[in-house]
Design goal:
It is built from five helices and two strands; from the N terminus they run ααααββα. The protein is mainly α. It has one domain: Winged helix-like DNA-binding domain superfamily/Winged helix DNA-binding domain (Arc Repressor Mutant, subunit A), CATH 1.10.10.10. α1 (about 5-10) packs antiparallel against α4.
Length: about 110
């Protein structure tokens, strides 16, 4: 999870998140990725460089094209980290449920 900070920093930008969403549909070239944005192709290339540096995408060379795709291992690392947080949150809710059940039982005993 060494790239976790870099991944979240890269995903903080809405353009980069949109690029990742597009790449979730499949591989795309820089020009295909640049089409929906009102920014230059070099600007999109800079965004791709950040995403690649964070390990979120990979590029390959195909003649003059450089198609990009999501890097599955990066998403797995993020998901593992989020699973750890989900687990901690579930434990907190379980403890809260136990406390509330105890309060409810105590109130019921007092009313009887």
């Amino acid at each position: 999870m060494a790239n976790l900070d870099a991944a979240f920093a890269a995903m903080a930008d809405p353009t980069r998140r949109a690029i990742l969403a597009r790449l979730a549909l499949g591989e795309a070239t820089v020009m295909q990725l640049a089409a929906p944005f009102d920014i230059t192709q070099p600007a999109v290339s800079r965004h791709l460089k950040v995403l690649e540096g964070a390990g979120l995408i990979v590029r390959r060379i195909e003649g003059t094209k450089r198609p990009c795709r999501l890097a599955p291992t990066a998403i797995t690392e993020i998901d593992q980290w989020l699973d750890m947080l989900r687990s901690a949150l579930a434990k907190n809710y379980d403890r809260l449920d136990a406390v509330l059940d105890g309060i409810k039982a105590s109130d019921e005993r007092k009313q009887s």
